[in-house]
Amino acid sequence: MKIAANLSLLFTEQPLHARVVAAAAAGFDGVEIQFPYELPALQLQEALQRAGLPLVLINLPAGDLMSGGAGLAAVPARQAAFDAALQEALTYAAMVRPACVNVLPGRLAEGVSREQALATLVGNLRKTAEAFELLGIRVLVEAINPLDMPGFLINTPAQLDALLRAVDQRNCLAQYDLYHMARQGLDLVTGIELLRGRIGHVQVADCPGRGAPGSGQLDFAAPLAALQRSGYRGWLGAEYRPGEAGTLASLSWLADWRQAGGSS
Question: Would you please indicate which residues are annotated as catalytic (active-site) residues?
Fold first, then answer.
C-alpha cells in the first residue's frame, strides 16, 4: 500500500500548488486534496507533473457542509445544487484525473426524514458513479464520526455496508477512515471484514487528537494487517493534523511505516 499526503491538512504552511512538491520531497507516493477547486485545474495538473506524483483523491463540492450545514448529497431540496457540484467535479477531474472522487453524505437536514435523505443520497451516488465510470474514476462514500461532526448521516461500517448495497454500483466503494471509526470506539478490524472487497480508499490519523500516527493511542498494526488479508492494495491517505511544529516535524512515522512495508 502506498501513502498519500492529504494536502488540505498537511504542508499548509505553503500555498496549495507548492504542497504537491513538498509532499514529493518528504517521501510521499501521492497526494489527496479535500476540495482543490480554489486552484485552477491546469495549475494543479502542472504541479502534479512537476512533482511526479499522482492525485489519489478529491471530494465532490459539498456546499455548506464544512461550515456546519447539511451539505448537498442527501438534501432533496438541493438537488440542483448537487447536480451543479457534480458537473464542476467532472470538469475538474477530466483534467487532473484523480483515482477517486469522494461524495460526502452530509448531515441530516432539518425537516427531512432519514428515509428521505438516504433515498436522495442513494440516487445521487448512483448518478455520480455512472458519470465518473466513463472517466475511469472510482466514486467513494465515507462514514464520519458524529462526535466531531454531529448529525452526520453515515457513521459506521454497518451503515456504509447498507448504503453500498442500496446503491449497487460496481464503481461505488467505501472510503474507510481509521480515525473516524476509532473515535466512536468501533472495532476497526470488524469494520474491514464487513466491507471486505468494497473498500476503495483508506485514511489514517491517530486517536485521540487526530494527529500523526504515533501521537495517540491507536494501534495501527491490526487494521493494517486486516486490510492486507482482505486483499486491499489501495492507498493510505495521511489525513491528520500535524500540530504547531508543522508537517515536517510530524513525519517520523512515515519512515517507520515504510520500513515495516506499509507502502509496499
Answer: 142, 239
